[in-house]
Amino acid sequence: MIFLRAEFFVMTVMIPAASCFFKKGHEPVVLFNRDSMINICVNPICQNGIIMMNKYEILDKDRVLSLIKNGDTVAFSGFSPAGGAKVVPRMLAEHASAVHRQGKPFRIRVLTGASAGDYIDNDLAKTNAIQWRAPYQGGRELRDQINRQEVQYVDMHLSHLAQTVSAGFFGKIDVGVVEATEITPDGRVYLTTSIGASPTWLACADKVIIEINHHHSHRLRELADIFIIPPPPRRSPINVHTPLTRIGWPYAQVDPKKVVGIVENDEPDQVAAFSSEDAMSRKIADHVIRFLLEEKQAGRIPEQFFPFQAGVGNTANAVLAALGNHPEIPPFYMYSEVFQDAMVDLMSDGKLLGASATSLTVVPEKLARITDNMDFFGSRIVLRPQEISNHPGIIRRLGVIAMNTALEMDIYGNVNSSHVFGTHVVNGVGGSGEFTRNSHLSIFMTPSVAKGGKISAVVPMTPHVDNNEHSVQIVVTEQGLADLRGLGPIERAEKIISTCAHPAYRPFLTDYINNSPGGHIPHDLNRCYELHRNLMETGAMLPDLPGV
């Protein structure tokens, strides 16, 4: 290494032991600028006047395709579309189409941090190139294939993913494909807009391809705080005591010997904007805000509030915006899994003091605001691996207030977030389970009806349960908010029916309770899915009900 400018200096740091590749401590040399970390070259064009050896091969399409075989398990970076691999999935989709036209098989097992955008969950799926998928998905094409049993899908809690892979429960990871702004000769990988499970892919994959994305700012590394939890039983408490506590490094680590090369791209993330706030979302937000202020007045929430978590979606985004605009809600922090659009404005306005997440799932315009103003945002946003952002112990320690969305709820407070009719998956459980089970307050939100009143979100029994009555505390629709804490089953049912169910469905639900056989949780197994059966047979849960 030859230093050509005197303002740089060398610092040696320790990387903690971890699973897979990290069998022993490692002491790389880390190069810093006195003002900010520099860009070390990863291709034949040296940058910043520093000559570095051990450059990685730039891979063409043929070389990439020679590395990934039919039946391989391939782990891609990305948590939502943020930070997702782009070039390699596109190459694989084109390859699969060509191979299938020749009558030859080509299907792979796909892992990502969560959903992965169109490159994987739609484009790769359209070519019938996916045979197995975990832990979450978000594409219409892939969803349809899963529901036709053409793709096997493992729907799981997102904080469990890293340990599941590190322990070998899914078998070996043949190839990891990780997007980064830079990789250094000693194996430091500076990730882009998400951390997700990328550090685990780098540690556990047999071979690694790095996608260098020139579109993203190198200053994104200022947000990263990467800490790998060692395998059990050699674990100490995770020392995150505030949403902005930093305990790790601005880079992930990979054994350079495993890196077969890099591919380059210059593409933004495929993050779509949320729908505009509507009257339904505003009513839900009003109920949530009124409840939180009552909790504060009663002394069950401190004056400065506990940190919030919000699931991804139009309703959650609208509720966040409403929290920020309400004059009686004090400035607050967030400990969540996704940093989304509404948070950029809230942070700029001083209402959001800081946020911890695992991805920047924001539209390109919002991302540009962050990177162009990194001196402001850099100290207020922390991006962590998803096993830290969604860690049950940290959620419980910080007293997080969790706000997530439901497809439907039953009259006793069980929530279905993922499966229509209990059979057809929409996306998956995602991170809602970790936050719901371990939060100080767990809130689920949904409109009371859909499809012009043909579907009720409140039903006698949900045919699939993602979050059960033992964890769900508060349920909200535009009709009202039901506080279920301390209520027995019949009390919960009466509260949900009278407060959250649409008035058009209350007589049916009340009759169901009144005529169900006794027991601790009264149910009539002959009628409990009557609304769902009606919907399947006639297109409406209550066929004689006029539009509402």
Topology (elements, then pairings):
Elements: E1 8-12, E2 29-33, H1 61-67, E3 73-76, H2 87-101, E4 108-111, H3 118-126, E5 130-134, H4 140-147, E6 152-153, H5 161-166, E7 173-183, E8 188-191, H6 198-204, E9 205-213, E10 252-253, E11 259-265, H7 279-297, E12 308-310, H8 314-325, E13 332-335, E14 338-340, H9 341-348, E15 352-357, E16 359-361, H10 364-372, H11 374-377, E17 381-383, H12 386-389, H13 392-398, E18 401-405, E19 408-410, E20 415-416, E21 419-420, E22 424-425, H14 432-438, E23 441-445, E24 449-450, E25 455-456, E26 458-459, E27 474-477, E28 480-483, H15 489-499, H16 506-514, H17 530-538
Parallel strand pairs: 3-4, 3-7, 4-5, 5-6, 7-9, 9-11, 12-18, 13-15, 14-16, 15-17, 18-23, 19-26, 23-27
Antiparallel strand pairs: 1-2, 7-8, 8-10, 19-20, 21-22, 24-25, 27-28
Please characterize this protein's 3D structure.
- By secondary structure, this protein is of the alpha/beta class.
- Among the domains are: 61-231 and 242-265, Glutaconate Coenzyme A-transferase; 391-548, 3-Layer(aba) Sandwich (Glutaconate Coenzyme A-transferase), CATH 3.40.1080.
- It is built from 17 helices and 28 strands.
- Strands 3, 4, 5, 6, 7, 8, 9, 10 and 11 form a nine-stranded mixed sheet that branches.
- Strand 19 (408-410) and strand 20 form a beta hairpin.
- Helix 7 (279-297) packs across helix 8 (314-325).
- It is globular and about 70 Å long.
- It starts with 7 loop residues before the first strand and ends in a 10-residue tail after the last helix.
- The model is unreliable at 1-19 and 21-54 (pLDDT under 50).
